[in-house]
Task: structure prediction
Amino acid sequence: ADLSLFKFITTELTRGYFLEHNEAKYTERRERVYTCLRIPKELEKLMTFGFFLCLDAFLYIFTLLPLRVILALLRLLTLPCCGFGGSRLLQPAQVCDVLKGFIMVLCYFMMSYVDYSMMYHLIRGQSVIKLYIIYNMLEVADRLFSSFGQDILDALYWTATEPKEKKRAHIGVIPHFLMAVLYAVLHAILIMVQATTLNVAFNSHNKSLLTIMMSNNFVEIKGSVFKKFEKNNLFQMSNSDIKERFTNCILLLIVCLRNMEQFSWNPDHLWVLFPDVVMVLASEIAVDVVKHAFITKFNDISADVYGEYKASLAFDLVSSRQKNAYTDYSDSVSRRMGFIPLPLALLLIRVVNSSVKIQGSLSFVCLLLFYLGMITLKVLNSIVLLGTSCIFVKEADMEEKLFDPPPSAVSSRVNSRANRVKIIHTPQKEPTTEGGGLPDGIKVATVAESSGSALPKSDSDTFLTTPDEDEDKSMVINAGQDEDGLEPRRPKKDLLEIDRFTICGNRIG
Result:
């Protein structure tokens, strides 16, 4: 044992180690690196698909909805000539279309009294810090409005189309309609203030407000990366990011329209705005990529999960085309992503009407051609989305679920009672586990409300978007634990089961 400083230094310089002795650890670390490298590509595929879904729902407001409203009104006008045969004057979908049309018309006239120029100068007179606080408050308010707004619209549609033979337990269609109009106007004004604040940031001399607003996106990384996330929570965040990106694009379009109008539509000014627009969009994309890359890394989530998310969104689109569809496609997008196109469309119509002057017959011809072009874009986008969605659904093996009947509240309650599991403790002095089974003091009893016939499926089974393994549905109780520590393992939640949580879709910032 000849210990010396020279021998210690020699040993430190010449000692070796073998990474293959811990192969599993280093293989896992390498896979994490590969996952982070795959995240930008997989995330942008999901974002692109979701962006065009939002675009399809947004174009529907301008193109097909007016035509559907006109067809519904023509049916009402020609009803005396055709006779009153049938139990309904209008089909439920036509009633919802007429209500949407009336909401759009009333809100447009109410929005015409809001002075955009006065709002711009009022906001521009505030300090930079105050505007930064106002913009953050507007983002929070927008998410709250989106959360409650879809509930208000759903309540109106169901109140207006509810079968008459059922018991009436509501306040009436007119109060619900007034609440929907009030919501749409307030939400549109809120988005207008948000667009005006962004316009002030673009027109500021030192661009300090725009820089602060862009840095706010990177603060979002701090609040999201170090939290515990599951696949369902990540899906909810992805939907929120899709909605946020599309909304930002519309806000930037509004800012460009207002600035071009102020400079008499000089195309040279557009190139002045172009770098700032690219900078805002690039910062948004960079924040989303970094955020999702580190969330998947810290929570050991594979990049393939974004393919499941695409299949889930595709399932919503394809199921809305079925004969037994129970909702319009734009409504399903609203519930899934928290994107309600109605207030945003109102604001865009208001801004375009004040920025573009239509005078003369040639202007009306150009307007008609522009409308036909929008319809063409909507149809082509819908066809491409439907074909792509069918491919995603087929790859995810979810074709059979398209033919499942829509869920009902009665079947959901029956199924929840039928699948209830109880743990019954019987007094025993000490448990025995002979034969590898459960202790004698514990019995697992399943309470079934119906016998013989097959139980109806639950909502999660009907709306399941990704096939779960059988082991996820089983409950395993470890017999080696004490009686006090015995708990049945709950099955994992399905992706589309978060529908009950994604009415807003923006709760995770």
Remarks:
- The two ends are 63 Å apart (CA to CA).
- The CA atoms of residues 70 and 98 lie 8 Å apart.
- The chain has 17 helices and two strands.
